[in-house]
Design a protein that fits this description.
alpha/beta, Rossmann fold, elongated
């Protein structure tokens, strides 16, 4: 089961759901849902970005409304992620998590690392962000020429082996803060990345047709 969480940042393109997806709106992410012609199943947050009339309409349509006080210790997006984990989901996809505020954007990049046991992906139009943890291998899918970057977070990553990329690594190391892992290229439709240690943030930028 997959949860799609819509944040209140910039939505590059309309949402598309698969059958069985649970749609969760984090506060102002409601507007992105409605603009895409979709009804969220769950709306969560302090609702400082919504009017009471909006909340009433959603509730009348059957949405579960979960309200928090404005003075709280977590962002609306973190509350939405934590709620999703209690639903027995296997995967979370987060959209509209990037925006004009750098503090919010950086925090949203790092949030998935709190839950390494759940597959969490950030989507932003043609760009996607994956997280690779110690001893984990992920497969990426795209087309020849897609840009793939590997960025260590929280410290150095080591024992990195890649397949299907123009500049391969075999049991390699990437230092925290370094740029060696940026702007690699997918050679065909499939590639893979494995790391023995550390955490890698893997971005894939799909070429626009």
């Amino acid at each position: 089961m997959r949860a799609i969480i819509v944040a209140n940042g910039i939505l590059v393109k309309p949402l598309v759901l698969k059958e069985g997806d649970i749609l969760i709106a984090a506060d102002g992410g409601v507007r992105h849902c409605l603009d895409s012609g979709l009804q969220p199943s769950i709306v969560i947050g302090d609702f400082d970005s919504l009017e009471n009339s909006d909340i009433t309409v959603l509730e009348n349509r059957g949405a579960e409304i979960i309200r928090y006080p404005r003075r709280k210790d977590f962002t609306d997006l973190e509350l939405a992620i934590n709620h999703a984990t209690g639903l027995g989901i296997d995967e979370i996809v987060i959209v509209a998590a990037l925006g004009a505020r750098w503090d919010q954007t950086i925090a949203n990049f790092l949030l998935p690392t709190l839950l390494p046991s759940i597959k969490i992906t950030l989507l932003d139009g043609p760009q996607e962000i994956h997280y690779i943890y110690s001893g984990e291998k992920i497969e990426i899918t795209g087309q020849q020429g897609d840009i793939v970057s590997l960025i260590p977070i929280g410290g150095e990553a080591w024992g990195i082996t890649t397949e299907g990329l123009e500049y391969p690594l075999k049991d390699g190391r990437l230092p925290f803060g370094g740029t060696r892992g940026l702007s690699n290229v997918l050679l065909n439709e499939h590639g893979s990345i494995f790391t023995k240690g550390g955490i890698l943030l893997c971005t894939v930028i799909h070429q626009q047709k």
